[in-house]
Each structure stands twice: as C-alpha cells, then as structure tokens.
Amino acid sequence: MTTAELLVALARANLAAGAAIVAVLALRSPARRAFGAHLAYTLWLMVPAAAAGVLTPALGSPGLVPALAGAGAAGRSWLAAPGRAQGLAALWLAGFAASAALALWRQSRFAAAARAGRAGPAVAGLLRPRLIMPSDFDARFSPAEQRLIRAHELAHIERQDGRVAALAVVAGWVCWFNPLAPAALAAFRTDQELACDATVMQRMPKARRAYAAAMLRAEPAARDLVFGAAWLASAHPLAARLAALARRAPDQMRHDLGVGATAALAVTSFAAAWAAQPPLALPREVPPQETVILMELSPPSPQQAAWVYRAAPPLRPARRGA
Predict the structure, then answer these.
(1) What does the mean pLDDT of the chain come to?
(2) Collapsing DSSP states into helix, strand and coil, what is residue 173?
(3) Judging by beta carbons within 10 Å of its beta carbon (0-12, 13-18, 19+), is residue 31 exposed, middle or buried?
(4) How far, in Å, CA of 224 to CA of 111, rounded?
(5) pLDDT digits (tens, 9 = 90+) for 253-287
(6) What is the C-alpha to C-alpha distance for residues 111 and 80, in angstroms, rounded to an integer?
(7) How many CB atoms lie within 10 A of CB 64?
(8) Would you call 168 exposed, middle or buried from its count of C-beta atoms within 10 A (0-12, 13-18, 19+)?
(9) Would you say 229 and 123 are in contact if contact means Cβ atoms under 8 Å apart?
(10) Residue 226 to residue 258: CA distance in whole angstroms
(11) Which pLDDT tens digit goes with each residue over 167-184?
C-alpha cells in the first residue's frame, strides 16, 4: 500500500468515525436515562466499528453512496502529484509526535505530583495499575468515604478502564486533525466514570449519600493524568455524576433491551460504513489468446529437396535375422 492510499484510508476512517461520534454524543444521555450508565458507555463501540467497516474491503456491486468512489479517486489523483503525499504524511507524523509528547509530559507532571502527595485519588499505570492517594487522604475523608473511594478505584482496575482509556488516547493521537476527537475523548471519560459509579452503587446500594459526600469533599487533583482514571478530575461533570447516583438501576427487562439495542447499533455502524464505501477494484481477467500456427503447404523448391537429400545420412542395409 502506497503513502497516498494510507492517507486516503485514514481520511475515510475519520469521516466514518466522525459520523459515529456525532451519533454517540446524541444518544448517550437518552441511553443513560433509559438503560443505565453501563450501556451508555458501551455505545462508544460504534466508533471503532464504523472505522473498521470503512476499512474492510467491499466486493461486488457499487456501494450505497457511489459519490464516495469518485471522491476517493479524486483524492488519490490529487495525492499523486510529486511530493504531495509525502508532505502530508510528514505533517501527520509531526502532529502525532507532538500529541504523544504533550501527553507524556502531562503524565510526568502527574507522576511528580503523586510523589509529592498532591495527586489522587486515582489509578495510574498500564502494566501494573496502582492506587494513588493524596497525603491528606485519611484526614480529609471519613472511613466510610475512604472505603467507597477505594472501591471505585479498584472497580476501575477490575474493569480495565485505564487500559481502555489508553487505547482511546492513542486513537486521539492518530486522529489529532479530527476536530471531534477531543470532545469524544472527554465524553468517553465521563461515561467511563459514570459506568464505574454505577458498578460501585450496584455493590453498595445503601451508600449513595456517603458516595455523594465523598465527591463533594474531593478536589480535582488529577489534571495531568493521561494514562489512568481519577476519582474526580476537572473535566468530570460533578452535577451529572451526583444526578446519576439518585437514579435507580434499570430492571432486567430494560437491561436486556439495552444490550440488544447497543449491539444492533454497533453492527449497524459497521454495516453502514462498509456499505457506503466504493467496492474494491479487482484486476480484470485477461482472456486466453489463441495460438495461430501458419503452415506453408506448397511443394518444396528443387534446391530445398536437393539440400535435404545431401544432408540425410545414408541408409544401412538391415541384418538378416534381426
């Protein structure tokens, strides 16, 4: 695959993912009210499903949007100019490196604050996630609140939320030029926190008041945390988390209906992106060519007959009894 083809594939994947992001941003709040925080968080599967669908080769008849075929061909022809594809690839690589460097710098600042006792409560680390608590954790929170905060952070580790969030962060680096990527990452982290809150409330349904008090007592102390999950960050909508605590968990029927709806949306997102792309151009089969042998059936010339007679070896008489 050439550089131009990679750039076109990246652009198409971002268009499909952008459409899925818009759909998730519109559906997440109604889904949370109807089916709970867990299924609203699951809606984000629509984004990678749409990107995977548009990158899966389509065979057969033209797609549902034939204009995409012309747009892709136009993009490839525009990138075919000398040095144009390489320049865009260098620009994308510079943006990717700058995004990664900024994230690593922020993570190093969080690590320094954690060593000084000024960060947390949070979970940090990808290979070995660990709890980060501030130096005044015991003085600020009551024993009941401490138990709830630890339960929240341990639920993050159990649910692999830090690693899933890291994948979302790296996807944001890849799609740094997409204007919807920062909003999607912030909303994704919010839905992740709401789903973790719901997990703790399912296990400790009588601790809602203490859970809310612990949120109100905490201060955002994980501003630079990139690879991990914080109890309370500046980007978390505190009002939405407190309102979610007062909401009852959905019953089994609504939960099953929500599972079916989110699964159908993810499959539809993949199928729509796959069907909308132009079909893969297959090489044409070359028909077999007939071999024509030209033969001259005219009598040979006297000179050719004399040459054959002179070149032929003499015949030897056959032996008797052979």
Answers:
(1) 83
(2) helix
(3) buried
(4) 9
(5) 988 999 999 999 999 999 998 887 766 555 555 56
(6) 46
(7) 12
(8) middle
(9) yes
(10) 30
(11) 999 999 999 999 999 999
